[in-house]
Design goal:
This is DNA-directed DNA/RNA polymerase mu. The chain is 38% helix and 13% strand. By secondary structure, the chain is an alpha+beta fold. It folds into 4 domains: 87 residues, Orthogonal Bundle (DNA polymerase, domain 1); 40 residues, DNA polymerase, domain 1, CATH 1.10.150; 180 residues, Beta Polymerase, domain 2, CATH 3.30.460; 63 residues, Beta Polymerase, domain 3 (2-Layer Sandwich), CATH 3.30.210. The strands form 4 sheets. A 5-stranded mixed beta sheet has the order 3-5-9-7-6, with helices on both faces. The chain has a 3-stranded antiparallel beta sheet with strand order 10-11-12. Helix 1 packs antiparallel against helix 2, helix 1 crosses helix 3 and helix 10 packs across helix 12. Bound molecules: 2'-deoxyguanosine-5'-triphosphate (DGT) and magnesium ion (MG).
Length: 408
């Protein structure tokens, strides 16, 4: 008796912001391969190709079960020829030769190591590679000048390339909460980024701070930073005015409010045990394997000569020490006025692709311009107010997707 297997093709809407993507991924082998191609494109500054692979990976992430045959993919959005070729080879042989040879290539490995240094982006890494620098030792032996962020990045390289755990995020949340309230009673702090989406690990911890009374948040960032510094919690910090001004945000930029939107990139010094004596991290925890350097602040770094130092002066400080009772953790802080809070919350919760797709949806499907500050409706020629994420989704004509389902 012949068994005919019925092929049920998957069906998926085209924009990631129309889909529910949990952390449960049934196609990890495929999405890991496509993510690596995306990462390599981004490291080579081919952002268009990078996005194409990210979109393809995101489509596979939201499928309800593992892909078994190419026929199931018929009609799915965002799967280009290149992605389909990679998927086909993996389904047939278990691996993609292109991905495997990329993973093993000297250039990819060098880009990974160098952009794994906090403050080093694809451009800098590429220049160093062209000058013959492939690893940390060669960087230290070179006469390269490093800015303050890169010096800190090299010094804490080992720690910053270990994934941050949820327990560590909770411990730092507690410290942050106490600090924020002590400098401004009534101020509110929210965990954002990957941890808000329910991830159990991340490459950093992101916080959004506001105050329910408009204007009270002014000057808050510098007070919070000073207070953290006074308590000895900061190994590094750089506060900038938010500079996330994409041209695509166009008229949606509330220029007068811009100045109040501040961001701080920091490196926290976290004790290895909390008050209860519980260990916050596993020694030899899994190595970070996210998107190193993809949002590195190198472009915003001060170029003042006083900030700069030769790579060789940093010695070999990143080596893990048995007796070190603390570890370095990347922490990002954002302060927003309450009038922009919902937009900031939505804009900083991620994932990066989900955010990008929301903006693309707004622009292409609704003639609106969405940023982390505001939503501008070009047809009506006005800003649309919102006090919650739900309202923003409603303005955009999208079903509300909770943070745990924004893991595109
Ligand atoms: P992680 O840290 O590897 O677990 O992953 P995420 O999702 O926390 O990513 P992260 O920390 O790079 O950024 C958090 C979210 O904030 C991300 O989903 C997109 C958004 N984001 C990152 N950088 C910027 C920025 O400069 N401006 C704005 N508006 N949003 C940003
Ligand atoms: Mg994060």
């Amino acid at each position: 008796q012949q068994i005919t297997e019925e092929v049920v093709a998957f069906s998926v809407p085209s924009y990631a912001c129309q889909r529910r993507t949990t952390l449960e991924n049934h196609n990890m082998v495929l999405t890991d391969a496509l993510s690596l191609l995306a990462e390599n494109a981004e490291l080579s500054e081919e952002d268009g190709r990078g996005v194409a692979f990210r979109r393809a990976a995101a489509v596979l992430k939201c499928l309800p079960e593992p892909v078994r045959s190419m026929a199931q993919l018929r009609g799915l959005p965002c799967l280009g020829d290149h992605s389909l070729r990679v998927i086909k080879e993996i389904l047939e042989t278990g691996a993609s030769s292109e991905v495997e040879s990329m993973r093993e290539s000297e250039r990819y490995k060098a880009l990974k190591v160098l952009t794994g240094i906090f403050g080093v982006g694809a451009k800098t890494a590429d220049r160093w590679i062209r000058e013959g620098i492939q690893d940390l030792q060669q960087l230290r032996d070179s006469e390269q000048t490093l800015n303050r962020a890169q010096q800190a990045g090299l010094e804490h390289y080992h720690d910053l390339n270990q994934l941050v755990t949820k327990a560590e995020a909770d411990a730092i949340s507690e410290i942050m909460e106490r600090t924020v309230i002590s400098v401004l009673p009534g101020a509110q702090m929210t965990l954002i980024g990957g941890f808000r989406r329910g991830k159990q690990t991340g490459h950093d911890i992101d916080f959004l701070i506001t105050h329910p009374e408009e204007g009270r948040e002014e000057g808050l960032m510098s007070k919070v930073v000073s207070c953290l510094e006074a308590q000895g919690f900061l190994l590094y910090q750089k506060t900038t005015r938010n500079s996330y001004l994409e041209s695509s945000s166009g008229p949606g930029r509330p220029s007068s409010n811009m100045d109040r939107f501040e961001r701080c990139f920091s490196i926290f010094k976290l004790a290895k045990e909390d008050k209860r004596g519980e260990t916050l991290m596993e020694d030899g925890a899994k190595t970070l394997n996210g998107d190193p350097g993809s949002h590195s602040p190198s472009s915003g770094q001060s170029q003042a000569s006083g900030d700069r130092k030769r790579a060789s002066e940093d010695g070999a400080k990143d080596k893990p020490s048995k007796h070190k009772r603390w570890r370095a953790v990347r922490v990002d802080l954002v302060v927003s006025p309450i009038s922009q809070f919902a937009f900031a919350l939505l804009g900083w919760t991620g994932s990066k692709l989900f955010e990008r797709e929301l903006r693309r949806w707004a622009g292409h499907e609704r003639s609106m311009s969405l940023s982390s500050h505001a939503l501008f409706d070009s047809k009506q020629g006005r800003y649309l107010r919102a006090t919650s994420e739900e309202e923003i989704f409603a303005h955009l004509g999208l079903e509300f997707i909770p943070p745990s389902e924004r893991n595109a």
